[in-house]
Amino acid sequence: MGVLKKIFYAVALPVVLFATWFFMTEGSENFYSPPLRTTLIAFKNTWTVEQLRADVAPSLLRLITGYLIAAVIGVALGVAIGLNRTLRAVLEPVLEFFRAIPPPVLVPVIMLFAGIDDGMKVTVIVFGCIWPILLNTVEGVRAVDSVVLDTARSYGFTGPARITKVVLPSASPQIAAGLRQALSIAIILMVISEMFAATNGLGFTIVQFQRSFAIPEMWSGIILLGLLGFALSLLFRLAERRALRWYEGLRAARRQAG
After folding, report:
1. Is residue 20 situated within a structural domain?
2. E strands of the chain, at which residues?
3. Comparing C-alpha atoms, which of 152, 165, 151, 139 is closest to residue 82?
4. At what angle do helices 57-83 and 85-99 cross, to 10 degrees?
5. Reduced to 3 states, what is the DSSP secondary structure of residue 30?
6. Which of 138, 122, 53 is nearest to 89 (CA)?
7. What is the pLDDT of residue 212?
């Protein structure tokens, strides 16, 4: 019963929103707001297997590459900064400065140094995604109980073993929160980066539809982008639940005890 309730909560609002969209636009003669029926027909005719391979596959490759690079750099730097008080004091002002800069603003600057190929797009995604991962990792590492660290040290866990066996598992819930935030940012930056000097990709195709006044096709691309974001979020949630199974069990036990 619990599973059915979760499924109902997950699909209820999207169904209501699509039904509202369908009935509000049915019979619409507005060029910029075509009926949802027309948009769905355009979706079926536009996003064929060949079109998905030509535009969606490159977008996903850039997104995954940039996201993974940001995850590796963010977690590695976050652990180093979180464990070293001096390093944290030196780098914190600089990190706060760069974190405050919106990544889309830097797209023209990154184009000057990285060119207009896939390297530029991946760099934009990395720059935007690294901050929530880095800062959440730092906070997670700082929150590790000192008693746990002292106990691990007394049992001979030092160096890399201390990090992999004690620090990372203890900070993993906070790291997962940063990775979850970064995934949403990665999708946004993927689209924005493909709007500049691109020849393929989902963002490029949506802009091309808009410029050629193919409005139903443009709306179909936006729907596809939303479905893509939902699918990636669902996959991340499944992976997170599997990786943090011990943490979910601990929270459940605490709720029952309370």
Report:
1. no
2. none
3. 139
4. 140
5. coil
6. 138
7. 94
Region of poorest pLDDT, from 25-34, 177-186, 223-232: 25-34
**Band of residue 249 on the pLDDT scale cut at 50, 70, 90:** low
Q: What is the DSSP string of 161-188?
A: HHIIIIIHHHHHHHHHHHHHHHHHHHHH
Residue 30, domain member (yes or no): no
CA 41 from chain center: how many Å? 29
Q: Take residue 247 and report the two structure tokens written for it.
A: 């943490």
Residue 2 lies in a domain: no
Q: What total number of domains does the chain contain?
A: 1
* 59 contacts 205 by C-beta, under 8 angstroms: no
**By residue range, what is the domain housing residue 47?**
35-257
For 214-240, the pLDDT digits (tens) are 999 999 999 999 999 999 999 999 999
CA distance 175 to 181: 10
What's the CATH number where 253 sits?
A: 1.10.3720.10
Separation of alpha carbons 28 and 34, rounded Å? 6
CA distance 80 to 253: 32
Residue position matching structure tokens 């979180």: 82
CB neighbours of residue 257 within 10 Å: 6
Residue where the block lists tokens 């400065």: 97
Prediction pTM value? 0.89
d(CA 206, CA 222): 7
